[in-house]
Specification:
Blueprint: H1 9-24, H2 31-44, E1 48-55, E2 66-73, E3 80-82, E4 85-87, H3 95-107, H4 112-127, E5 131-138, H5 149-161, E6 165-167, H6 176-180, E7 185-187
Antiparallel strand pairs: 1-2, 1-4, 1-7, 2-5, 3-6
Helix pairs in contact: 1-2, 2-3, 2-4
């Protein structure tokens, strides 16, 4: 019987997960870089985040179609994700650790400097064939004919709160340049 190499896929995932946890709990002095690093590390371990985006300044309840994005690694070949969900992929995260990463992957969009750095580095990951982003347009039945902003908002809350599955089967991965066009979009 031969020896099993120390650096098996499981061991590498454990080391990467430990590194991610160190980044998550690092001091606030390097919070901006740490947030971007932690988000990219999560995506690099096949973690995924599926969410709705809209151009900055757009009233979400006024849209006649919804733009839904998923971010993950090139090694994650799944095509269906739950809206507003953070999928652990191979990270091994669960419970409060996964919840904390969910906050981090959302936080990179909040501040201009963080968002710009995140987008540049994620685009590089796309160019290097390590990361991927996909976008699909979703038009729920009746959305286009709803005249009430309240009705539209309630429809989206039902869509998001029940964790509706969104399929990205029919859409290709974005190129780095296409991904960068979403820099001025914000998540819901």
């Amino acid at each position: 019987m031969g020896r099993t190499p120390f650096w098996t896929r499981t061991n590498l995932a454990c080391v990467a997960c430990a590194w991610l946890l160190v980044l998550i709990t690092a001091p606030a002095a390097s919070a901006q870089a740490t947030t971007v690093d932690a988000a990219l590390a999560f995506y690099g371990m096949s973690g995924a985040y599926c969410f709705r985006v809209a151009p900055l300044g757009t009233a979400l309840a006024e849209e006649s179609e919804w733009t839904v994005m998923v971010l993950t690694s090139a090694s994650n070949h799944r095509n269906t994700f739950r809206i507003r969900s953070v999928d652990p992929g191979d990270s091994g995260l669960k419970g409060s650790g996964l919840q904390r990463v969910g906050g981090i992957v959302n936080e990179v969009w909040k501040f201009d400097g963080t968002r710009e750095e995140f987008f540049e580095r994620f685009a590089k990951g796309i160019r290097d064939r390590e990361l991927r982003a996909r976008v699909v347009k979703v038009v729920p039945t009746g959305l286009a004919t709803m005249s009430s902003i309240r009705e539209r908002a309630e429809l989206y809350l039902k869509f998001a709160d029940k964790g509706t599955k969104v399929s990205f089967d029919e859409v290709p991965d974005l190129t780095a340049e296409q991904f960068l066009t979403y820099l001025d979009f914000v998540p819901d």
